[in-house]
Give the backbone structure.
Amino acid sequence: MQFTAPLSLTYQLFSYTLNINEMKIGVLSDTHLASVTEDFKKMLKRQFSDVDMIIHGGDMTSVSVYDYLSNWELKAVRGNMDDHDLGALLPVKRVELIMGKKIGIIHGRGSPYTIEDVVLGEFKDIDVIVFGHSHIPANLKRAGVMMFNPGSYRGSYSHKGTVGIIEIGEGGEMTFRHIEV
């Protein structure tokens, strides 16, 4: 009988064995794609070629995008615009322990003026919250929690398209940045 560990367990054991002491995470939300486009593939290759994992904050809108992003280690949640098939695959929110940091992931809901309050209220004892929904890039700290919205890959009326990068260093220090696409 052969034991096959879940991907996340395998990754943790693999990371420990190799003594990986830093992590680079590509962060997306609100891609709103009906299918994987060549532009999307090129952007991922250009911006995320060296990431260890991708976090998606919801509103992929199609399973084909999920399937393509699953070529990386993917941590994703569903958004309000995701189709039925994605809704069946993805949770509304999740918490991942990554390099000793508790990272909450949620799409969010409501007004862009109150979304930080809404998503902050969804988690307890967390280091970071990655969220989307507003299409507005955000990088702020509230109540001791880093809150990061990568913005929208396709942009909005008032913002160009953006994605994000989170880096976690050996000592647990974290950096967050947005990249215009």
About this structure: The beta strands are 23-28, 53-56, 74-76, 93-98, 101-106, 128-130, 138-142, 145-149, 162-168, 174-180. The chain has one domain: 21-180. Residues 12 and 18 are 10 Å apart (CA to CA).
